[in-house]
Design goal:
This protein has 15 helices and 27 strands. Helix 1 (3-45) packs across helix 2, helix 7 (281-295) packs antiparallel against helix 8 and helix 9 runs parallel beside helix 10 (407-418). The protein is α/β, with parallel strands linked by helices. The strands form six sheets. Strands 17, 18, 19, 20, 21, 22 and 23 form a seven-stranded mixed sheet that branches. The protein has five domains: 28-94, 2-Layer Sandwich (Histidine-containing Protein, Chain: A); 106-219, hypothetical protein tt1634; 229-340, hypothetical protein tt1634; 355-472, hypothetical protein tt1634, CATH 3.40.1520; 481-632, 60s Ribosomal Protein L30, Chain: A (2-Layer Sandwich), CATH 3.30.1330.60.
Length: 639
Amino acid sequence: MRLSAIFAIVGTFLLAAILCLVAAGFSVQVIEDNARRSVRSELDKEGITWTEVDADGLQVFLAGVAPSEARRFAALTVAGRIVDAARVIDQMLIEDSAEIVPPRFSLEILRNDGGISLIGLIPASMDRDEFIEQMTDAADGGEVADLLEAADYAVANSWAPAVNYAVRALGELPRAKISVEAGRVSITTMADSPAEKLILEQSLQRRVPGGLRVLVNVSAPRPVITPFTLRFLIEDGVARFDACSADTPEAQRQILDAARAAGLEGATDCTIGLGVPTPEWGRAAVQAIKALAELGGGSVTISDADIALIAAQGTPEPKFDDVVGGLNGDLPEVFALHPVLPPPDDGNAPLIVEFVATLSPEGQVQLRGKLGSQRLRDTVDSFAKARFRSDAVYTKARVVEGLPPEWPVRVLTGLEALAYLAHGAVVVTPDNLTVTGQTGRKDASAQIAGLLAEKLGDAAQFDIEVAYKEALDPVAGLPTPEECVAQVARIQETRKINFEPGSPNIDANGAAIMNDIADILGKCGEIQIEIGGHTDSQGREEMNASLSEGRASAVLDALRTRRVLTSSFTAKGYGESQPIAGNDSEEGREANRRIEFKLIEAEPAPDPDNSGLESAGEAGQEGTEASEDTAEGSGDEQD
């Protein structure tokens, strides 16, 4: 065969192959473009605009960053409706999810007679073994149920102070629920009496460290009132209660309304308690008060179910009979009425025999007046020494004959009533017993009224003029933290805490001012105080900082040796960093060398809405906030 023919045949085949390749490539390009456009169009209809679409032959590639796993799957599903799902190649990424919010750490401590239960989520960084050991010590032999979970996340700085405070508070709470979060502690517990409730609330609130919000809810049972006593008087047109008891809030409201209608003014306590002899107590008290108001003066004393109504001297007998007759008909059957109409004063009555006992503010007791026998005199003297201090009783009473047979009971009852006072007097006569003075007990008048009604009889006449003084109250009379720091500041206005030159040691003349400061702080209980040491600018800054801290610590140690409760005190040295005067004169340097007592302010805890780690709920009436009060006094000798 000729060579030209062979080339022609080969050329024909090559041309055909090229044409086939061009046609195939064009077909593939058309298929790819159609698949790309169709998938792109369908994704756009579904709002999936973030996806990038490409095609390579029969395969369709999806790329891009999906906002979530669900949206990625939706894109694959849409593409699978256009081409075979097996031809869809997923090259999409998932957008990084938001940083996981740390959990809110919380701890519930439940304590009862059986032991302690721990529930909640605590940070893994917390020393769990040490915490459980503290709980075991607090349980005092009881079981400790550990139901805590731990998580390895960062924890707020206010978590540790909250846990430490909860552990300390648990030591004085035999039954309690303590909820702990960062920056907040909530305590729910019980007290055996209203007085114990007040003491416990103040103790817990005074120990709150700075930056911690504490909510305290202490419930106390209603007191048992024995005898259940009410005493209402109208004297010279002035109405008052010596004692007021009620069994329900509704009865309390009705009694106070009746008293106000009879002329009572101002705020008055009426104790809601247990021990009422009958559910009709409130109605009987209201009727008795209304009857006294009709008489216009006198007193009404209710002791359990006995009512003594004593009219004012000079009350017309017909009016007295009408009022007593009406009251007899209105009272519930269980009550017994004992009405007394004093005889008119004829102006010729003999001199009344009396016995007087006085209690001075210093605690000295003097007894004078008349007693019926030497044996009674010895008994009264021994009784007084048992009630008060033996060395504080001075007896000047004289023995006379012809005293009433009930005289010993009246005298001893008067002495017993005197013991309720901080200072005052008791005057005993055959017809009356008067108690006057001041007391630090809010319920003293009620207690005295109940005592006299029980000991002297329902129809006995007595007068109680006892004033409650908060300064005499051993609990309410405590100075506030602000007052404590202010008193220390007043001492330092004229006197200085001096140190040996260049030394942290208090000089020999510093004992007197430290004694006075210790006397003040010793009455303040556990409050948060910072003792700050300051120097002038002479010398190196580092040396001044160390010297000021040593002097602050020396003051703290001096208070501790004087039996001041210093567990909540801190000592800090500021060196020369906080001058209050210029250092270019001796007077200025002298002012800068000083010791300051500063009340640590309870800072608000961070907002829980801005952090998953903390909670700082508002405290209502139970959360107390200390305001900073700085006591700046003159300080030490030269550095």
